[in-house]
């Protein structure tokens, strides 16, 4: 079996990070290295999907739950408008292969694109 991802370890309380919101199947944290005034991560609790393509194919309703929690935290932590980014593949900047959505809001710059 593969090693648990950093996000699974956060969810399990092995690595400290405040869970700022959650639903039955999804949770949200602040990014440790923010690239925008508001930079949150919305993550399925299961680590079985490596990226958004696998998630969309395997469990579309879980993807919808990710988008729904992104909307909720964007309303709570920003003015409700946000950019939703799923880096997909190392060549696109993905470093954690446990699917997660970046919620970017506030004054966005080119750096916000990662
Ligand atoms: P990716 O590069 O895979 O799209 O995004 C992974 C994100 O996870 C990065 O933006 C990185 O800053 C964030 N990250 C990595 N390790 C930790 C951590 O231990 N805690 C938190 N809160 N974020 C992390």
Overview of the structural elements:
With 114 residues, this protein is of the alpha+beta class. It has a single domain (6-113), classed as HIT family, subunit A (2-Layer Sandwich), CATH 3.30.428. The protein has 3 helices and 5 strands. It has helices at 6-11, 52-58, 60-77, and strands at 21-22, 26-30, 38-44, 83-85, 101-105. Strands 1-2-3-5-4 form a 5-stranded antiparallel sheet, with helices on one face. It is globular and about 40 Å long. The N and C termini lie far apart (30 Å). Bound molecules: guanosine-5'-monophosphate (5GP). Residues 6, 15, 17, 29-33, 41, 87, 93-96 line the site of guanosine-5'-monophosphate.
SS-derived structural category? alpha+beta
Number of strands: 5
- The CATH H-level superfamily is HIT-like
The CATH architecture term is: 2-Layer Sandwich
| Largest β sheet strand count, sense and barrel closure | 5 strands, antiparallel
Topology-level CATH name: HIT family, subunit A
Radius of gyration (CA) equals 13 Å
The unique ligands bound to this protein are:
guanosine-5'-monophosphate
Question: Which stretches are poorly predicted, pLDDT < 50 over at least 5 residues?
Answer: none
Q: Give the distance, in angstroms, between the N- and C-terminal Cα atoms.
A: 30 Å
Give the total of domains.
Answer: 1
Strand order of the largest sheet: 1-2-3-5-4
Protein name: Histidine triad (HIT) family protein
Motif (Histidine triad motif): 98-102
GO molecular function: catalytic activity
Domain HIT: 6-113
